[in-house]
Amino acid sequence: EYPVGFNSITAGADGNIWFSTTSADSPGQPLCDPDGVDRDSLGRITPSGEMTFFTRPELECPDSLTLGPDGNVWFTASAASGGGGPGFIAPNGDITFVSIAAYAYAVGPDGNLWYLGSTGQGSHRLVRTDTSGQTLADFPALSLDGELVVGADGNFWYRTRTGCSGQPSLVRQTPTGVITTVCDPSGNLVPDDPRFDRGAHAAGPDGTIWFTVWDGGTGNGVASIDTLDPDPAATMRFVADLPTRANSIVQGPDGNMWLTYDLTTLIGRLSPSGTVTTFRLDSSELTSPRDIAVGTSGDLWIAAFGSSRQDRPGGIGRVSMGAPECNTAPPPAPLIDVPEGAWYGDAVDWGACHGFLRTIGGDRFAPTKEMKRGQLVQTLWEMVDRPGATPGSSSPNPHGFTDVDADDWFNDALDWAAGREMFTMLPGGEFRQHRALRRGEFAHVLWRMAGSPPASRPCGYVDVPPSAWYAPAVDWAAEHGLTVTASATRLHPKKTVKRAQALAAIYRLASDPTAWTSWEDGPVSTWRFE
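Predicted structure:
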């Protein structure tokens, strides 16, 4: 049985995310109804995760979604065996097919829709079209391998298989049709493995184009080129090695390049200086991430393809690039004990507007009171949208703590936390909800929630011995600015954590996706088609 594979994704003009699906093969390639079951569709997902699917019998293997200047989402698709071919989907879900042979789209520097396609006789064309599919301009082009990208120089950039001495190369084509094949002077930077059907490249910061490269063996990497330089080929530079081949690449709102990795459960972040950070997705939810796009709110969205032979699911994931802004109406009432300009004020506003700030008497935050274990577990659980809990129900205490009943207000949260071993069991198997958190313990809770990621260096606190059970957590917390201390050399790990200190650290954690390596129930939210 073939799973539904999510293969392309883009942000729509309506504030939603639009995606395409087809049948997923084990090598991570789309298949058009291999077993006679129609899994081809277009769909949208709201920021809250509500999915809606749209299809027509003629829709065959939709891919390469692009937001057009008309507010519709344009797609490529097969016209073979009765397929309707490329077209667009309107915000209301109406699908229209157009008589073009498009491989990839881009909105040009003139604001019109352009595509690379074919005449049907093997002749490749760069075409400017109106929003009904009528040709406005038509130029010869080279064959396409991957996406069509508009550079900061106002030209179109794409990849071709045989541009430089029979090797894959970059191509620059002006809006008037002038073609320049851009080859690495050293001959070392081959834009991707020619054994695969598509490469990854995207516009980056400061007028650059970033693209995946292949060394002719098993090595994969990323290179960049400056499109604004009079001689772009001279600016080609190798940026970084990658752990495996990248399926797609996009510039994130944080200024870094973000990648999805082929046939893995990994995504990556690549800094302008070449530092690669790899993040692992939950393999039970998202496998073989294929495409990545920036949403209208600044978050990153992932389309994961799944695998038929490994019985792994496809789905849609969201990477939160920072703590979300408050969008409730009316805004939360001010708290009388949080003065204007308080150093923890942003954290309080954030927690209040999203409904997981625990107040005292409704109008007090009590910033200097101690954070209790029960309060913390409930706050963290609500922050990640109450995973695994059914509203209005209580679970039968799988956490194993002897002093917590099934009807206790934080019981569902503790079930979730126990699965991640976030809280230590105290003597007698007790949880002790009213016990104040110590600083070392608090770091351990956040660290376990984040998936126990390793730190790159010791914390440097003289009162945190390397043998302490919480030392790895403190190392990680110190690296990401999450420790609760005013000293550069001492943590005072047995001191209690105040409520303001705790919420400020949680806010910083939610604002920093680099602190997470296991993102289940964290900055990555996942929706899967059942």
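Summary: The first helix runs from residue 345 to 353.
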